[in-house]
Design a protein that fits this description.
This is Thioesterase domain-containing protein. The chain is of the alpha/beta class. It is built from eleven helices and eight strands.
Length: 256
Amino acid sequence: MHNQVNRVGYEEDKERGVSVTQPPTGARTAVLLPGTGSDDVFVRSVFDVPLAAVGLKAVLPAPIPGADLVSAHLAALDEAARDEPIVAGGISLGAHLAAEWALRNPDRCAGLLLALPGWHGKPEAAPAAVAARYSAASVRALGPTAAIAAAIADVPGWLATELTRAWTGYGDALADSLDTAADRPAPTLDELAGLTMPCGVAGCTDDAIHPLEIATAWTRALPRAALCTTRLEIIGVDPEALGRATVLAWLKASQG
């Protein structure tokens, strides 16, 4: 008997000698966007293997730093869905933008993979938005190098490594990129209620920047959604844990 994940269909990948769960939709591609101040390298470490396990090709756009950050991410979704529907998603800001895009393109979105949403509606005092604004101000006051050093002073080693690489990659546009993300409204709960495709939501039980209450609220608002959780301390040693939680939630939502 196959486990719950494989009830949606599976086949043997003879080249790799593994059982590959088949996606419950006709989509063949998943486009995953990074979070605020993050990059495609981290997204790949989270989602590449879990997506391959369900037969989806991962498209992981790199951020375009600066004021065009959001529009470039949305354009990447448009381009990927030009010929056929896609599964869209991302982490934090990336999840917000995927849901925003799906609201405007419901016929081109076969599902949503929503990891660590940070707020719904206006960002206002959401911890993730406050943190991004504070970081942007620090970059402008101290310069990127000193701001990065201050940001990583009291965080776990894995997060320090991720922040250093990603923030360095944004170059002189780091502060503008952080502010652009912090000021972007996410879909409201009422808007999320209009998304009828299967949606997998993932949250962390120990993440103060992306409170689990937000992921729970998104899950309750979405008509066809499931929530799976993990912990930051696990992601620190196994980034794929976040991807597995999100993909598993999507598979569960697809069966409902």
